[in-house]
Amino acid sequence: MQGEKAELGRLELIRESLVAVVNEMRANVIHSSYSSIIYEGHDFSCGLVAADGRLVAQGLDDNPIHIFAVPYSTAEIIRTFGGDIHEGDIFLHNDPYTGGTHLNDVLMLYPVFHAGALAMFAATRCHWGDVGGMTPGSLSGRVREIYQEGMRIVPTRICERGRMNEAYLDLLFANMRIAYERRGDFSTMLGTSRKAAEHLQRLFGRFGGTTLLAGVDELIARAARVMRGCIAAVPDGTYFAEGYLDSDGHGDEPLIGRLKLTIEGQRLIADFTGSSPQTMGPTNVGPAMAFNAAATMVKSFLDPHTPVNHGSFEPIEIVNPKGSFLNATLPAPCGGMVECRALMAGLVASALGQALPERRVGDLKGGANHVYLSGPSRDGGLFLMYEYPAGGTGATRCTDGNHGTRAYIEGDFNAVWSAEIVEAQCPIQVSHYGIREGSCGDGAFRGGCGIRRDLRILEAGASLSVLADKCIIPPYGVATGRGGAGNRFVVLRNGATLEPSPVPGKVGGFALAQGDVVRIETAGGGGYGDPLDRDPERVLHDVSQRYVSSEQARRRYGVVPGAGGARDDAATHLERERLRAARIMITVQAADQDEFDGPRRRLRVTPAIASRLGVSDGALVELATDTCGSALRGWVRIDAHASVVPIGPRGFAMLGAQPGSLVEIRVAPTFPA
User: Are residues 525 and 598 in the same domain?
Assistant: First the structure.
């Protein structure tokens, strides 16, 4: 017993020591980086990786989008260079097709040797504000190939045995805007990696190299055993989910993501077969993101409290055929990586919510909401403001979502730039920043509200680029909860509201005039449970805080405020009974297969039902039950003979309903509501 306690204590010391190295790496990056998106926005992550590519340690504040892709990138670098890795070598990588995220996220991998052998890598991945391409900031909703998104760095040895390849660096930075920032951030990553290597050498001296590396192996093995036990506690079965991105950025055709999640004892298999083909717009992603999304959600749902290392992910298997927008190949652009990854995370959450109903959670705001403002700076150069405004988080069976905050699938990013930084560095005035009233997804527990942010352009010559999703197809709710409002990005000019692109959320270099106001309105989180079951006191509190208006409280929750803001119990009871009676319930019947028109699920309804819904052919609607992992969405097909709505096997699995059941049909959320 005493020996076991000593072993546990030694392992904990090793683990905490390695995490401490990562935490100091983070502090070094924040305090020495040149780009405000890094030191202010914290758009970077650090980690330690074993010599064979397994994740060893990360900090609590690191972004899983960055870190969980590092093992994939490391494996590609090891595959490329094999045994030809030496002390003094340094590697760069950002290629989405070989484990990167999108081109702006540049990985530096720094080998650390002990006793003449490769022992570990120090990994730093930072979002560089610009890596070239067709628009300032490199991310645009209107690109058609990856070459328009900037410099693509396949696994590259940038430094060989201590000798830096300055010619290669010159080539990189000569093709990037605001090159001095890029060089400064490169130097930050280099200094951070060297300091991490020094600390690791101290740990080798403290614990002994063999003991330290054996401890790492044991920590990973223990994490794998814990996760296998967590998976084994989930009911065996096959669970299905589907979801959509708005479009590829060049048309109105949505992209469908499909998931078949299988639990077999201690194994979890996430199969994304059947998702839409890759596109020539920015909403694609490389192979690392499917594993990334599944790993994040499985860890969050099943084992949220133990430390993160590679063992947590060993029982997870991914099936993701090449050529879909969720595993794209050259030359598909991948700037919308976060949007695709958010879709996959939502699919995994929906499927796990079917397996574990008590852990269901409403959908999040979507992806990164990339917003770039750029133009001539006051000193004659170029200003570049990049932020990714947060939105509402989803509700659970016992908690409301949060307003305008980062969520569990994101890292320690800020919600937006502070007004002081924006106005000090850019010819921009932050004229409004606050909660977006009414944007929450309704439910017994409501989703969080998004934010509204108005940015006034003070000088001529600026431009706007946006890469976002969930502008047309909003976040989903669960257990009959409603989805939140979608994202919205518009320009206010001379009293008129301008759409900066024919495709919402996909903007590339829209010319701005002096005095224009860029209005950003982010999505709300999905709700949980029946909105008419929400405690009226909670609704009235929301009204008092201006999360919803009095009219929205009545129309969406059936709560009627009385004199002085107190609730009118009698009027509330009558209003809720009226709203319940007005719901449209339909019978669902089994069909041999689900009906699709391209990527769009079709739901056949009678003209009478369409009239009651107030929709025409092709409108987006959803079916909801209190057992669904997420609302089942589809586009109306009016059919005079459709006395019941035919649903195929996957549809029934997602709804959690039986043939002949009555389910609610309703129009998908729109805003204002």
Answer: no
Pairing of strands 428-435, 451-457: antiparallel
Q: 386 in helix, strand or coil?
A: strand
Q: Are 158 and 164 in contact (CB under 8 A)?
A: yes
Q: Do 481 and 597 belong to one domain?
A: no
Angle between helices 288-302 and 337-355 (to 10 degrees): 40
Q: Which residues of 201-219 are buried (b: 16+ CB within 10 A; e: fewer)?
A: eebbeebeeeebbebbebb
CA atoms of 528 and 530, how far apart (whole Å): 7
**Helix H segments across 208-268?**
209-232
pTM, two decimal places? 0.96
Domain count, the chain: 4
Per-residue b or e along 86-113, where b marks 16 or more CB atoms closer than 10 Å to that residue's CB: eeebbbbbbbbbbbbbbbbbbbbbbbbb
Residue 417 lies inside a defined structural domain of this protein: yes
Q: Which domain holds residue 121?
A: 2-225
Do 505 and 542 sit in the same domain of this protein? Answer: no
pLDDT tens, 179-238? 999 999 999 999 999 999 999 999 999 999 999 999 999 999 999 999 999 999 999 999
| Candidate from 166-180, 404-418, 445-459, 489-503 with smallest mean pLDDT | 404-418
Contacts with 562 (C-beta within 8 Å, 6 or more apart), sequence order? 568, 571
Instruction: For residue range 341-379, list pLDDT tens digits in order.
Output: 999 999 999 999 999 999 999 999 988 999 999 999 988
- Residues 635, 559 within the same domain: no
